[in-house]
Design a protein that fits this description.
Elements: H1 7-31, H2 33-59, H3 61-73, H4 79-136, H5 142-148, H6 152-180, H7 182-197, H8 199-213, H9 216-257, H10 263-273, H11 280-295, H12 297-322, H13 331-374
Helix pairs in contact: 2-7, 3-4, 4-6, 4-7, 8-9, 9-10, 9-12, 9-13, 10-11, 11-12
């Protein structure tokens, strides 16, 4: 019996084996997801400096290349040009982040402390307003008191006051945790510098390994796809950051014009959460609506309408101008990526789920196109099935 495989059969066996292995891996990943996630969290914690360093190198790559080109134009040569360009890019990034934090943090903390200090008074005014409405409209809420208890109002004020009061010690604890990660951040910056210094060597090493273990067509595809992946992540992160900054500024300006309190604090929250696709604007609006409703119910309503209008502007005008169709994802796919990413890895998953899904979507689409072209098929919506 001849057991020798032809080249075509060997390719089919390898492809089928890969599909089976991927299927088994996905099955056990979902079956043991809690253990997998716990292990993943531990691994991320251990590798944080290197992940942070890679993120720095990725985000500062274009500024570094601009500095390097400028330094070469002024006559500098040699390996030191790259090192100097990387250091200048890191300094530029550090200055920009520091300036932003220096401008925002003092005012945000002032607003936060003021809110904590005035929370009991705001709550009292809020319940006075509710009681006035109940008396004026002659609303029967006896069943509500039976359900919640007659001391519900006092208990709620006590609990919320306690919550706001306990926020200060929690912030001190948070400060301690931030301080404990400072060393990891320094290590990450050093790792990022090293990656930028040796960028070409890293890329060359990966390419050599790819071409050594894969056929040339496969290696060519993987090299091209790696560039596509980098472009997708770069376009998404940079575009979303620019979009979120603009949305935060617009929110601050409009809140200031309409004389809404805590404009800077709430606009920072809105701008930050806007980085999360689809659900980010609503996540950012919730604390603002809650805070302003306690101060004055109508202001909470006005703020909700304001955020709704801003997000309509963002989704229909600003977002398409900045991001365009660079991800190549339909709206349903973006929603799917955010929901699945958030369900698996929380807020971070909601953010990175979209570019990751865009990469997977692009890969699947190219494979489908390749196989259809290989079969000389063109499938349209109205294609007849024989």
């Amino acid at each position: 019996m001849n057991l020798k495989l032809t080249e075509e059969n060997r390719s089919k066996v390898i492809a089928n084996s890969i599909v089976v292995v991927i299927g088994i891996t996905v099955f056990f990943a979902f079956y043991r997801f809690d253990e997998l996630r716990a292990g993943f969290d531990v691994m991320i914690g251990k590798l944080f400096p290197f992940i942070f360093g890679f993120a720095i190198a990725f985000l500062l790559d274009k500024p570094m290349m601009m500095f390097e080109e400028f330094l070469k134009k002024v006559g500098l040569k040699g390996k030191g040009v790259r090192n100097l360009a990387a250091i200048l890019a890191l300094i530029l990034g550090f200055i920009m982040v520091s300036a932003l934090l220096w401008l925002l943090i003092p005012q945000v903390l002032t607003s936060l402390f003021d809110l904590i200090d005035k929370a009991p008074g705001y709550l009292g005014h809020f319940f006075d307003f509710v009681n006035d409405v109940i008396v004026r409209e002659n609303i029967d809420i006896s069943y509500l008191y039976e359900f919640l208890g007659t001391d519900f109002e006092k208990e709620l004020i006590t609990n919320l006051t306690s919550f706001f009061s306990s926020s200060l010690p929690q912030m001190v604890t948070l400060t301690g945790k931030v301080t404990s990660t400072f060393f990891n951040i320094i290590l990450g910056m050093m790792a990022g510098l090293y990656i930028m210094f040796e960028k070409e060597n890293f890329i060359l090493g990966i390419k050599r390994t790819t071409y050594a273990f894969c056929s040339k067509p496969v290696a060519d595809y993987l090299s091209r796809f790696a560039k596509i992946t980098a472009d997708i992540f770069n376009n998404f992160i940079v575009g979303k950051a620019i979009d979120s900054v603009i949305i935060g500024v617009i929110t601050y300006v409009l809140m200031t014009i309409f004389k809404m309190p805590y404009a800077l604090l709430l606009s920072v929250i809105v701008g930050t959460t806007n980085m999360i696709p689809v659900f980010g604007p609503f996540i950012g609006a919730i604390p603002g609506v809650f805070i302003l409703m306690i101060i004055h119910p109508l202001q909470g309503l006005y703020f909700a309408l304001l955020i709704l209008a801003i997000q309509q502007f963002d989704g229909n005008i600003l977002g398409p101008i900045i991001l365009g169709d660079k991800l190549g994802l339909p709206s349903l796919a973006i929603l799917f990526a955010v929901v699945i990413g958030g369900g698996m890895f929380g807020i971070l998953g909601m953010f990175i789920g979209v570019p990751i899904f865009a990469v997977i979507y692009t890969a699947v689409r190219e494979v489908v196109e390749y196989r259809l072209n290989k079969k000389n098929l063109k499938v349209e919506l109205n294609t007849k099935v024989e």
